[in-house]
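User: Earlier you gave me the apo prediction for this protein. Now I'd like the version with S-adenosylmethionine bound, so I can compare the two side by side. Same sequence as before, with the ligand SMILES added.
Assistant: Got it. Here's the input I'm using:
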Amino acid sequence: MAGLTPPPLPAPDTKARAVEAMFDRIAPRYDRLNRILTFGLDVGWRRRAVASLALPRGARVLDLACGTGDLCRELSRAGYRAAGVDYAAGMLAHNRSGAPLIRADILALPVAAGTVDGAVCGFALRNVVDIAGCLAEMARVVRRDGRIAVLEVGEPHRALLRRGHALYLHRVVPVIGGLLADRAAYRYLPASTSYLPPAGELEAMMAEAGFPDARCVALGAGAAQLLLGTRR
Ligand SMILES: C[S@@+](CC[C@H](N)C(=O)[O-])C[C@H]1O[C@@H](n2cnc3c(N)ncnc32)[C@H](O)[C@@H]1O
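And here is the structure of the complex with S-adenosylmethionine:
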């Protein structure tokens, strides 16, 4: 992002603790900020992720890094049996989805292999220390022919849009986030997109993990991306 200086990101050995503490801090204001900062588009993105699973009603779907529960809520609304996993106690305390919740690291899920029909993960991939490990953990717990849907921040393809999006993320988001919640957190969140490999690489990582049909769909003109895959 030429001309925009990102804040320093935590080193791998301190990242998990720093991210957990940050989400505990912003938990009470997290949902409100999401709606404001995405102009409400995040609601449709989560709905699209859940619809993309296309599993039978009653299917068991794990929401990895469920946070305050927006995806758990969408899963239940779609007729799935949702359960959420997150390590931040503060985020879980604000999760009013009614789904069963487990406080755990999504890199070491306390779930037996092949026991869920699907998994979703919203805007958390860039927060984990090991993206390949996270995808491998999803592959471990999802049964054969089960489905996953992973939402993340994206990057618009068109140059002008990409520049505008970068300015918004790195200049506007920290100001609004600072005024309404926590400036350090809302500087980290856009900057942490640099942890994400390009879409093609993410698809290859998913294929390697056990989702050979992995594909990435751009949402909101590329502002978000949705990674989809079937466990084989
Ligand atoms: C940006 S929030 C997303 C919350 C929710 N998925 C959503 O769509 O709004 C990221 C969440 O990931 C959680 N998280 C990050 N790394 C994690 C890990 N290794 N294990 C469990 N939770 C993690 C954080 O605690 C936080 O609740």
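For your comparison, keep in mind: The first strand starts at residue 60 and ends at 64.
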